[in-house]
Amino acid sequence: MKRSKGSATHRHRALPVLLLLLSAQLPRPAVAEQPPWAPGVERALDPSSRLAVGAARVALHNYNFHAASPSGLRALGQVRKATVKSIPGVGQKCYLQFTTEDYRSRENAGSCLATVLYPKKKSPPAVNIKCINTKDQKQIQEEDNRLYQKLKRQTKPITGSNIPDSFGNIEPALEPVWALAVAGSSYMMWEKSTEKVGYFMTQVKSVKQWMRKDDSLEFDYVILLHEMPTQEMISCHMRLIWLPGHPLKVKYTCDSENHRLEDGSGMESGSAAGIIREREENF
Amino acid sequence: MNMKLMIEQGQVWLYNRIVQMKHSVQIYPHPSWIICTKMWLFLGMTFSLGILIPGKLSLNLQYDGDQVLHIVPETFQQVQHLQHLCSTSMLDLWKPQLPEDIQAGEDLHIRVPAPLVQEVKDSLDQHMISYKVLIHDVQELVDESMPKQRSHRQIPEGYNYTEYHPMEEIYKWMTQIQESNSELVTQHHLGKTIENRTIYYLQISQPSNKPKKIIWMDCGIHAREWISPAFCQWFVKEILQNYKSDAMIRRFLQNLDLYILPVLNVDGYIYSWEAERLWRKNRSPYMNGTCYGTDLNRNFNSSWGSVGVSYNCTSEIFCGSGPESEPETRAVAQFIEKKKTDILCYLTIHSYGQYILTPYGSTTTPPSNNEELMHVAQKAAAALMGKHGTSYKVGSTSSILYSNSGSSRDWAHMIGIPFSYTFELRDNGTHAFTLPSDQIQPTCEETMLAVTTIIDYVDQKYFPGGAVMLTSGSLSLSLCLSVVFTWIAS
């Protein structure tokens, strides 16, 4: 228990004291995000504020991309603690502690500590993240290998569309392909996120496999990303190469959307069409 | 859950009073006062518990929301902490039998009573002890093993509430629901959509000569959020199936009429079935038919057009050509405006994200009854979580989601409807708008608990008295006494 129950040892008083201690956890007053504070000062954030939650999601996009593991994808659980610091001339840095869930099963997957720096100039947020694993890492690797073998065994190029379908269904055979899409999309979503704009991968509009002579698996995707708060569906073309135990290779372009929010906040458009972002040199 | 939060409120009030008292009197309480108060407090505690506990037990929900956690402690420190936890809290150790037998590397299964679930999980997180939820709701398993009773079958036979239905089927369902429950349900015409389709709502009203107040709930304002109309249908079904047997529903139907709008944005919903699954807006043509759709939830007359919108029809958050420019918006607004003095609660159901949102989106200035709104929303979220462990965030739209003007919920509160909430249902992004149908039932079950918590609170607030003798006066008295006793005794 968070608060020690030093004096409460008598059994017949256990219940009322327990209730008192439960009741002693008064709701904490919300910490409002105040206008510019002294630079360099770390101030507390309401863990449910959009800055904190958004930053936690960005950190997880980064984690999911670097983990390069379709079986080890994580979704945000709850933000437990969050602080933010304004670094003059550089940007805003968030310090976060949050729990995570398995992306599919919503089972508790362990907590993470992360820092997310949103730079003043237009560039991807800088993320540092460390997570505890509740699942056995070996088990995850074995699942990844199993997925890999299943896909490698296909003699014909894998294709698919609308994953999940309108009813939320994902064909079991295409689940690994969808999970890879989530991992790859995490790269796009991480790069495109800002303090004000966040993303969720909504659907694989289409997928086509490119057969390779080496051991890697290569897929061509059209992905729909749900952009908040604009509510737009951004269509992105993504090329992904995967080999278990190796970093994911992702190239992408997203359709240009140029909707301004009518509050002067100036929404940035998605990556302009025509620019290809590469993750690895020898693609 | 209710108990904890009620005591919480009582304690805040009492603490403030005691501080006030101490500051004004400037001396410490006389010893004899302490003894007398202890006695009163003990009586008060027993009294208040006596009121609160039998009520809970009589509903036969002893394990509702209780969870069983599976833990494998890794270090000796973790073992010690777990032993401490089991010995000092009301945790039910299933495996091993005794705290002394807890060992590193060995399976641990503990049943955690619902009110302690979050605290225990927090404690485990703090001590870096990982856990898995083995059983999300012990009562559920208990219920499943009980023989099922014949439920009150007044719902259309064969209508499957655990799958998504196209608009044609929902129209048919509304007609059937009224036909087979005509003593309680009437179907009404609210207005027409831009493509000239009819918008219907259902009124659930227990016949009586008492004047009633109104609870309004609308679903499907955004076309792609299919789980929302699914919930409205589920809600109606649940009320009709249980209004005779469920004490809480019976009680509030004596005082409240329920107005349920299963699909507000009919054109958009149909479009999302036939053309574009992820369509959001209505189907209003703009720019000579080169661009379609206004975001109905930016179109209401609440700081319309000021923040979080676009004036461009191509945007998903296009607010329309003016406040209430859309016939769907007008249909809802005109009706609610007419009935506003009788409407106590406005609920609007969306997806996804798992939020219960309070006013406002258009400003960070809190509404006048913010504290109460938050308190009730937190109660609702707690009730929801008890069902399947789903966690919802609670807060104002502008602080935890985004700024937006012209929302129906903001408008409802601004014209004076005190309890106005937006629900964003499952999930948290994994399936987003395309929630698989196997999640319809659990989503609806848990949301049902949240919504009935709110309705029940509103009912008790505006129609106090009734079966359980919990007048606000006697309750706060017994809470005060019990809290003061415990405070002095510890």
TrEMBL record, chain A:
Residue ranges occupied by any Cystatin LXN-type domain in the UniProt entry: 42-139, 159-263
GO MF: metalloendopeptidase inhibitor activity
Record flagged with keyword Cytoplasm: no
Pfam families xref list: LXN (PF06907)
InterPro entries on file: CYSTATIN_LXN, Cystatin_sf, Latexin
Signal peptide: 1-32
Entry keywords, A to Z: Protease inhibitor, Repeat, Signal
GO CC terms in record: extracellular space
Family: Belongs to the protease inhibitor I47 (latexin) family.
Name recorded for this polypeptide: Retinoic acid receptor responder 1
Organism: Anser brachyrhynchus (Pink-footed goose)
Source organism phylogeny: Eukaryota, Metazoa, Chordata, Craniata, Vertebrata
